[in-house]
Amino acid sequence: MFETIVRFFKDGGIFMVPIGIVLVVGAAIAIERYVYLSIAKLSNRADFNKLIMLIGRKDYLNALKQAKQSKTAMASIVEAGLSRLLNRQPRDQIEYAMEEGLMEVLPRVEKRTQYLATLANIATLLGLLGTIIGLIDAFTAVANADPAEKANLLSQSISLAMNTTAFGLMTAIPLLLVHAILQTKTNEIVDSFETAGIKIMNLISEKPAQAPVAKAAPERT
Q1: Which of 71, 64, 114, 95 lies closest to 199 in space, CA to CA?
Q2: CA distances from 76 to 2, 108, 144, 210 (A)
Q3: CA distance linking residue 24 with residue 116, whole number of Å
Q4: Closest alpha carbon to 118 in 176, 73, 35
């Protein structure tokens, strides 16, 4: 098995090296992004549960303090809104502040994920380029070969040239699959920010329930 893999790489030529580098870089980005997004999803949800409880009790000062102590994206968005709220800003200004906070944290959530799609395209193109260069070399070699050996030599050369295309596709397909998974996780986190913003604005807009007024007892005649 190991010898087959080594022979596969050796027969593919020099283009197997850059495709291998693309695979390693893509795998590193995929692992880093998956771990980051998984941790971010859990920590954001935990912070939201704490903050929504404080905001529901109208304890805005402690909610702002909690948000400032946390470093999650969710806390940053809520902190922006609560700061405007405690400065007695109107609802639209609070919404603008939370949208601004969302725009600030989005690059942190989305960064590097798009590189995976780009790396997948690069791997495919490198594989095709390696095949074309290999076919050019093969036809050049066949042109000067013995006519009796041309067919056999041509088939062997084409088989070797296809190694780069095969390796390019073996690199590109997993990278595209991982990119789709990470993009889905990113969209889920962004949607959770928007949903949290709506819930928090609804809680802020709620007026505290008033105690029912006791009816006066009828006067006796």
Answers
A1: 95
A2: 50, 12, 70, 32
A3: 11
A4: 176
Helix (H, G, I), strand (E, B) or coil at 68: helix
Q: What is the pTM of this model?
A: 0.78
Q: What is the DSSP string of 158-189?
A: HHHHHHHHHHHHHHHHHHHHHHHHHHHHHHHH
Cα radius of gyration rounded to whole Å, the chain: 30
**Contact call for residues 102 and 79 (beta carbons, < 8 A):** no
The vertex-203 CA angle with 200 and 206, nearest 5°, equals 150
Tokens of 9: 């790489």
φ and ψ at residue 217, rounded to 5 degrees: -70, 135
Q: Is 209 helix (H, G, I), strand (E, B) or coil?
A: coil
Reported as a single tens digit per residue, the pLDDT across 96-148 is: 888 888 888 888 888 889 999 999 999 999 999 988 888 888 788 777 777 77
Determine what percent of the chain is predicted with pLDDT higher than 90: 31
Residue 20 corresponds to which amino acid?
G
Residue 208 pLDDT grade (very low, low, confident, very high; cuts 50, 70, 90)? low
**Helix/strand/coil (H, E, C) string of 26-66?**
HHHHHHHHHHHHHHHHHHHHHHHHHHHHHHHCCCHHHHHHH
Q: Hunting for tokens 């986190």 — which residue is that?
A: 189
Average pLDDT, the chain: 84
Element (H, E) at 66: helix 60-69
